[in-house]
Amino acid sequence: MKLENPEDQIYVLERGNDAVHVMKSIILSGMKEDAFYVLDIGEIVRKYEEWKVKLPRVEPYYAVKCNDSQMVLEVLAALGTGFDCASKGEINKVLSLGVDPSRIIYANPAKPISHIRYASEYGIDTMTFDNEMELQKVKQFHPNAQLVIRIRCDAEVAQCQLGMKFGCDPITEAPRLLRLAKSLGLDVIGVSFHVGSGCGDPPVFGRAIYSARQIFDLGNSLGFHMRVLDLGGGYPGYTGYSMNRIAEIINISLDEYFPVEEGVSIIAEPGRYFVASAFTLATLIHSKRDILGDSESEVPSHTMYYINDGVYGSFNCIIYDHAVCTPIPFNILDSPDDFAYRETLIPSSVWGPTCDGLDKVNDDILLPEMPVGSWLIYRDMGAYTLPVASTFNGYPIPKVHAVIEEHVWMMLKDRLPLTGDHFIKDNSLQSVRNDSWDELPHMLDDYEDIIPYSSYVGEVASTN
């Protein structure tokens, strides 16, 4: 397997192998020292299939800002999703895949004029608004736009609240804005909302859909043809997440307030739902520092581990997305003898590679003692990580190795914009030290059987 351009191709796995197997192979091959990702394309496909089953009336429009990896966008375009774009750059990236403009919603309520002009030029007609100035700009620079009014309805619990920035009050502001749009001769076609990214309050979707119904009725009474309901984002996507509760509330609310016979198009803007669990990050411990309890002690009271990715790279999600990232020691599974680590957990912290004291990934956690050269694995790293990562202090952004199981490859290989050139069948990396793993537990899923999460990460693991 040649990895000179690992982000250009998807590696088709041999039967019985999976993304975790490839990650082990890369680590044990000794060919990598930089941090790297393994992207499981099949996980994105599974999420799409789950969405279509559990929310059959809702068409997903992927939120590009969450992860604008070319590979992710190509796979989602091949599956047939729409796209939620927030800028001229995102629109251009999606259009370059051959996506029809009708499958794009420009879902930024506050748009630069040059971006509105660009949308008009390239036929991106559906866009959101939540204020008077936006209506005036659209009237001047894209008068044929099909507008969706964004109302505010905040979840009580969300990873990132958005209502303080976007969304008009459905009672005091929305009626005035609809009347202004009518007076300007603009076309308002629907209502959108965003309950907050990573929603932990499923009932909020019911409240928001009810509010949207009131605005629909008002819009229709003013002479608009209201025909689009945008449920926004807020759908978690971490490993093991079940969308059953949110789906149940949405489906019941849609049946009550937007029955099928009305013919309203229902869309949503999931981001992290599709990509969070598809990306797993491997980081190398390149340095460590033992802090002794007192001058006479030979036993460290705390160990500081330094890894080759940090908050200026992939772990920017800690600062900007309020994420809590849980490390999983890879070397604990190198041999059965290493299981003894479970008896020697010590207070630890994990630090990024830069010279900035703010570059801390984990604080006050219990980890086994690990030598320099060991690896820490972080799962659920696909959302709001790579798009914001920088090369501060000269450290590279981790490369992505995309893999796909054979049966998923057979389904996708002829769907544009994917072509045969996207895929490569090569098992040279997959076979490294394969026989040494037969008796080992699954590196990620079974680690809790060796050391329960609660025993070494405390409250950190409870965030999911």
Task: Provide a quick synopsis of the model.
28% of the residues lie in helices and 22% in strands. It has helices spanning 19-29, 41-54, 70-79, 88-95, 113-121, 132-141, 174-183, 204-221, 244-257, 272-275, 317-320, 406-412, 447-450, 453-457; strands at 10-12, 36-40, 58-63, 82-85, 104-106, 126-129, 146-151, 158-160, 187-193, 197-199, 228-230, 265-268, 279-292, 300-307, 328-329, 346-351, 360-367, 375-378, 399-404, 423-425.
Word description of this protein:
The protein is α/β, with parallel strands linked by helices. The chain has 2 domains: 10-41 and 277-463, Lyase, Ornithine Decarboxylase, Chain A, domain 1; 68-270, Alpha-Beta Barrel (TIM Barrel), CATH 3.20.20.10. 28% of the residues lie in helices and 22% in strands. The chain has 14 helices and 20 strands. It has helices at 19-29, 41-54, 70-79, 88-95, 113-121, 132-141, 174-183, 204-221, 244-257, 272-275, 317-320, 406-412, 447-450, 453-457; strands at 10-12, 36-40, 58-63, 82-85, 104-106, 126-129, 146-151, 158-160, 187-193, 197-199, 228-230, 265-268, 279-292, 300-307, 328-329, 346-351, 360-367, 375-378, 399-404, 423-425. Strands 1, 2, 13, 14, 15, 16, 17, 18, 19 and 20 form a 10-stranded mixed beta sheet that branches. The chain has an 8-stranded parallel beta sheet with strand order 5-4-3-12-11-9-7-6. A two-stranded antiparallel sheet has the order 8-10.
